[in-house]
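Assess this one:

_____
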Amino acid sequence: MTKLKSGRLILDEGAISALSSMYEEMKDQKCIKITPSKLGSWIISEFYKSYFTRYKKKISKEHFNTKEYLKNVVSNIDDNDDIEAILKSTLLELSPRKTKSKRVSKEEQESSLEA
């Protein structure tokens, strides 16, 4: 593993709990010398190499900023454009995103209940 550099990463409670659990399992193994920072660093590097490209669209969908998108659309409207038509089409374009993400989260909840 390469040298560690100082940086700050703020994790949500679920990620902290997961990291803590993984660390506890790893540190109890014989001949393993690891810290939570080294483990977190390894996880991020491996995720990037193996999974990032595959999950990039999902990450983008889950972190899509509707307000920022609308600001960009509005700022690009010219005086000659039909503002109402542009806003209607933009809102219609955004509607499936929200519906789809809600549907996915419900499906994920149902599948986790079945497991």
